[in-house]
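Tutorial sheet, problem 5. The two components below are modelled jointly, 1136 residues in total.
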Amino acid sequence: MFLTKVKKQSKKPRSNRKRNRAAASSLFLLPSFAGVMIFFVVPFLVVIYYALIDNPVQKNFVFLDNFIELFQNKAFLLAAGNTIKFSLIAVPLAVVLSLALACVLEKNLPFKSQFRSFFLTPMMVPVASVVLVFQVLFHQNGVINEFIGVFGADKINWFKSDYAMVIIVILFLWKNLGYNMILFLAALGAVPKDVLEAARMDGASEFQLFFKMKLKYLSPTLFFVTIFSIINSFKVFREVYLLTGDYPYESLYMLQHFMNNAFQSLNYQKLSAAAVVMSLVMVVIIGILFVAENHFGKDVEG
Amino acid sequence: MKRRFMRLAALGMTVVTACSVTGCGKGESGSKENSDDKEAKSEYGYLVDYVDVVNSENAEFYTLAMDGDNIYYSGATSNEDWTTGEVYIKQFNIASPDEQKTIVSYDFTEDSYIYIPYVQVKEDGSLLFIRREYDYSDMDVTGEMSETVPELEGLTGEETITEEYLELLGIDLEEFGLVFDDVKELTVGEVVDMYDALTSDGDSGEEYYYDDNGKTYLVTVDAEGKETSSKDVSEAMKDCYPYSYMLGKDGKIYMQTEVIIGADMDTWEMCMFSLDTESGEVEQYTVGTSEVLGMTATGDGQIVVAKYDDEGEVCIDTWDMEKNKLSGKNEDKLDVMWMESMYAGEGDTFFYSVDNTLYTYDLSEQKNTKLFKLVDWNITADNVSWIGGTEENLIVLTEMYGSSNWAVTLNLMTRVKAADIPEKTEITLGCLYAADTITNAVVEFNKKSQNYKVVIKEYLTDDVEYDAGIAEFNNDILSGNGPDLIDLSSLDISSYAGKGLFEDLYTYIENDAEFSKKNLNESVLKLFESDGKLMAMPSTFSVQMLVSDKSLYGDSALTLDKFAEIVKANPDKEIVDLTGRESMLANLYVCNSDYFVNMADKTCNFTDGTFEKLLNICKDLPSDEELWEQMDGEYEESEPEKVSKGTLLFYNLSLYSPEEYQIAGLLFKNGYNMSGYPSVEGGEVTANVYSDLMAISSNSKYKEDCWEIVKTIFESADDMFNIPVDNDALDKMLEEACTPNMEVDDNGNEVEMPSVYGWGDNFELEIYAMTEAEAEAMKTLVNSVTTLVSSTYNEDVYNIIMEESEAFFEGDATASEVCEIIQSRVNIFINEDN
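Model answer (structure tokens):
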């Protein structure tokens, strides 16, 4: 009797079960799917729509006119240029310095854990406080100017001079190095010790060990840290905005300033076109990084 | 089984998560009242009939009493200059308002006046009312009282006052609640001055002056108007100048008033007077020290007082008629910040209005009910004079002074189900704050329109801050759900220009037979053009000018260079009244913003040395903060006083009336220059528009109807403190200003009477009729405005300039460094819009 029952159950069509399972999975996926659609996909489609019309009231389709105007707009070009410049300086520095720090802290140093905590503290400080600290440091009558004044140097208006970008790079590094370093430390810890040992026995130098072996094992983390730093470099607007407002000195004018101001002045079509361009650039950069990561990490990834 | 349970649990969790997401943004807090409001709004409404009680150019309305469907009201009509006329009590039935019957009538002349502030219908249908009579026969032609204090031969005024002197002077101190000890240390002159002040000057003095010559009677007439009794209660009422009259349940008339106390004559106390209608006896009680916001009687005669309690909250207290004081029960909180007005309801209820909303309060249940927003039913809160009836059948009396007549209207409101109210298409009028002119025009339009109802949407309320209000306004416009009509005054017009958001109003003007562009001030309209299109229609404006002595810069234009010279040459004089360096810089920038920021060419120009001039002009002035600190608590002379003494160089003229133009001229007796703020070329004339700047949304479905509303607002523009954009209205204004006010003096000769304007303690100017030449000059001036304060500068640019200039004023940067930084930052702003 028992066997019969089992048999009967096993006779249930396999396709039905698959369908049920697929339906259940879809049901579980539905909230997330709806969330992504409502909060990401649909708004982005709306942004694309706005980028293709003349204004939100008359809604005349103008095809690529907004993009053409955008690329002729000096403020956009300045913002894009500054953002690219900042990313090109800040992102490699953030990656290289955090990796270097991770390598140093991987060694058996005294106060190793204290150093680790020290580099992580900027993450715990709210942005507003960070900005306040930097204002105190780099104000016209701030600590830095007082310090250089001791050596007879003139005061520098740091945020309204060509040095402004340097300060923002320092701020960016100060804020992000710790987190990147922790990621690299974890990745370095995961590099197989036996492989490294074998290489050493084969006579590999520390330089070779790092560049030929460790770096290959680190490539997924390197990829992630780079993406993460690029995203954060676009988000540096928050700090710049708090430091200098809507219209900073020219060297600090970032893409998000342009978009924020376009929003304030009700220029939705320009804002949308800029957002579409920015997302396309991000897709291209991430695509290139994916290709690079696949290329450099293929030897060590399963 | 376990697996199935896990799946069910997971499914449950998913549903909960999904529900919580869909529930986002629907907080519970504060929603109860709103939902109640919505329910009430959707369920009920009012059908309103309008009955014109008074609609005349020379009429006044005093008070009203109701007896069933019968309305009794007191008022007056007169000839054009109010020298003769009649004061009356009339009666009509709500069903036939045109059939009005005069119950009593009294004639008045220019030497006498009669006032009926209180009318009560008694149970037997007879009327009881208070009649106040004033005698002006001892007034001289200037409107001042005749000399009441005789000059005593041989007295210099420096003698110390004695009781004998008081007797000789005929001054009765008891009249003011004073005794001799209160004045014994004063001189004769000081006592005479004090007496004059109390009898002929100031607000309170005016009341005393009336009282000195006034008589008060308590009169009863039968239903036909035949006088059955009249009691002279003048003596008993001599200190009583009521704000309001209330019928108590004990049959007495209660009157709320303030009474002067203390020898300093500066302290007032809120008092209650009760008038026994049988005996004519008057008793006076102190209400107490609490700040009283209003009083009324309920329908059954309880006297209700709205006041602030110890915690600063508005509460209800009642008058104890046995103990003759407030009961002290402050439990009934009203949950409002203030009280605008209170009126008797039915039984133990009363009505009150706050923030344009009408409420009813039930004393026995200690419960208030929000009825409706007055404007939703075409009532302007400021115009309400009386409310009575029940929630179901409300009667609201409104008074409004129109362009030429005084209109008193009864709004008979019958509550019905919302479905029974004829549907009208809603047109939304959006604004930050609704100005009275807009509200009045909307009410007028709604009353007349059969098909449309204009709904005012205010974006700034007590709960919504400026930035949030602007953000909501912008989102509404850009989402396509914005208002059909927009009042752009108080908004940064430049940020809306050239975006195709608004209709070109020139098209409407050209297609409207009632309008002609030539009849409008074209120089003002030009200020609201964008790409040759008129984006907003102003109704009125004012002109900002600097007036100075002719000798200051002669016939040359007031350029920045000239202004810099003047500032440098007069270090010990005030340049512009209460204008520190930041304010001066702001004014100079705003009036020259077109020079520094050229939005047409997309260029900015802060580095050619002109802005450095501005900075250098301002740097030696005291900062705004220092200026305010200097005058903190100190008596500050008025601007005209300073000009007349020669301590102030420029008089800041806000030209909104012919009188203002004349005042500026009178201040500089040796000739004057009138110019806009200094500019690069000189000769700018700056306009300012504070309200009624109407635009029609390009997205509106009802553009033609919106234009009709714009016209209604334009035609009902308040030109009392503004210059009309309509040239005909300006001509009429100037014509009236040129007409002398003639009166007959004691010798029977016609003499021109001046209008007297006073500032500070002693500074006065007498203004006579404007000359034709002055009128022509003023017309030329207002027709030649070149810049607009509120739209020519962008707030972002303004903020950059003010922020960066601070470094120069503080000595942290040189003028050229500041200019470089401003140039860099403003350049971004301009390029963004390129």
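Marking note: Chain A has 13 helices and no strands. Full credit if you identified this.
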